[in-house]
Inverse folding.
């Protein structure tokens, strides 16, 4: 519930509409959060905090900032992703509740609308998202430019965007809470190729930020 409120309240500006046809959108946002920053404002479960970006989700979005949600389609079934569940537990954990509940939410809200092109079903959706995470390593990309986890070192927000743009060849979006870098998103075409993100409401960060280590 907390995650849902956060998503609607702050992470995603722009109009949400429910229903609609799977595949009827402009591009994907692939969204990761830095755990220590996320857990600074959320009640995370014990044992969840570590130095890592983990997956929040793969979200269909439109160029005007609106996005579809809760499309018609396959109901969530954790058995369908049993083969990658151990990986999902590590790289796509819920930080505030049971992992399968989080995956069920992401699937129902965003996954059902994502089925198009190379994504034929629920398994494809989760498998592709894991592949994107592994292919575009944000922590590694930042480290190439000496942007490292620390409670002390500060980096200008534009330098964080610059580092990721140089590393991956496209412009990402970032969000901060206070001076903490909390969210990074890459944009992908409906063929799952990286593209530069358009400016979107709710995605901004300025001043100096940290990538906290606690
Ligand atoms: C990403 O890079 C970091 C830092 O270089 C490394 O520790 C981590 O294992 C990498 N993650 C993946 C999924 O390759
Ligand atoms: C941050 O600063 C504190 C106090 O100056 C110091 O004790 C600590 O080792 C520093 N941490 C890092 C990661 O540099």
């Amino acid at each position: 519930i907390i995650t849902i409120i956060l998503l609607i309240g702050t992470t995603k500006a722009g109009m949400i509409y429910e229903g609609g046809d799977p595949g009827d959108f402009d591009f994907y946002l692939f969204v990761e959060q830095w755990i220590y920053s996320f857990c600074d404002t959320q009640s995370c479960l014990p044992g969840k905090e570590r130095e890592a970006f983990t997956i929040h989700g793969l979200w269909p979005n439109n160029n005007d900032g609106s996005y579809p949600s809760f499309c018609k389609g396959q109901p969530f079934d954790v058995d369908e992703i049993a083969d990658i569940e151990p990986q999902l537990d590590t790289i796509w954990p819920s930080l505030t509740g049971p992992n399968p509940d989080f995956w069920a939410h992401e699937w129902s809200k965003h996954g059902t609308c994502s089925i198009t092109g190379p994504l034929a079903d629920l398994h494809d959706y989760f498998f592709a998202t894991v592949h994107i995470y592994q292919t575009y390593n944000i922590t590694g990309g930042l480290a190439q430019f000496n942007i490292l986890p620390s409670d002390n070192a500060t980096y200008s927000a534009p330098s964080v965007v610059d580092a990721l743009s140089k590393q991956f060849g496209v412009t990402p979006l970032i969000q901060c809470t206070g001076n903490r870098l909390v969210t990074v998103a890459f944009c992908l075409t409906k063929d799952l190729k990286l593209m530069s993100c358009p400016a979107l409401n709710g995605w901004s960060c300025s001043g100096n930020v940290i990538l906290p280590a606690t």
Notes: Strands lie at 16-18, 27-34, 53-61, 67-69, 150-156, 173-177, 180-188, 194-195, 208-211. The longest helix spans residues 122-135. The two ends are 25 Å apart (CA to CA). Residues 6-209 form a domain with the Ribonuclease Rh; Chain A fold (CATH 3.90.730.10).
